[in-house]
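Weekly modeling sync, notes
Attendees: S.R. (lead), two postdocs, one rotation student

Agenda item 3: backlog of single-chain predictions. S.R. asked that every request posted to the team notebook include the full sequence so nobody has to chase files. The rotation student volunteered to paste the first one in as an example of the format we agreed on. Action items at the bottom.

Example entry:
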Amino acid sequence: MISSMTGYAASSIELSGLNLALDVRSVNSRYLEIQFRMNEELRALEPLLRERIAQQIQRGKLECRVTLNSAAMAPTQQLNVSLLERLASLGEQVRAHLPEVAPMSLADVLRWPGMLDDSSRQQDLAQPCLALLDTVLREFKASRQREGDKLKQHLLQRVTAMEEQIARVAPRLPELVRAYQAKLVARFTEVLGSADDERIRQEIALFAQKIDVDEELTRLATHLKEMRRILDDNGAAGKRLDFLMQELNREANTLGSKSVSVETTQVAMELKVLIEQMREQIQNLE
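Predicted structure, as returned to the notebook:
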């Protein structure tokens, strides 16, 4: 399914008095950008979580937040005695040089990175944290797919509107070209008294070829058909659709510059409006 780059999901589990919570949210981005917000004692798990996310998500600016409930965690924590002894030794050295410095409070000591941390608990949390991430990512991807389906319907409506504009003007092209040729003949006759000169007829025929936009309309129709095919495929589509927007815009510009009638000018303008509407939404697709 087509996926949006905007999404959110969250979940939590209880582990021996610990409350482990994880949430993921994202907005659009050209590439995959992952930022983590987590307890310092969980920081060692970041590479594992980053790798797991990158395996399943391709684009988006993504924030992953992992927390341990401090109230539930407190009874199970143990002091890092070796770190406490090193901190006490450093404190004595500092006071020897700067006796006026106030000693650290109990709260300061307990908040010191790693003071309540033990490596065995980190090991115990690794697998539950990855399992929780997998649960969150499943819902996260589902939410992005739901949003992506809405964007897909929006794009298909614009594709249909563009096809209707092309169908409206394409059958009229021969008539519009002949009308403009007749107008040129009338002007030459008015200025020169005649338009029967062979060179004049050749110039009129050549100019008629230059203003013929049948080729542009054919390419527009082909690009729109390709859009439908991409939207029906599974997987990432944002970059491919963004490229098609450039091609559609180029053809619409050419159609407008070659227009010799109000009707084709109006169609070119309407196509450009629809293309811009699609381009804005495509920026949100994975």
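Discussion: group reviewed the output briefly. Residues 71-75 have pLDDT under 50 and may be disordered.
Action items: rotation student to repeat for the remaining queue; S.R. to check formatting next week.
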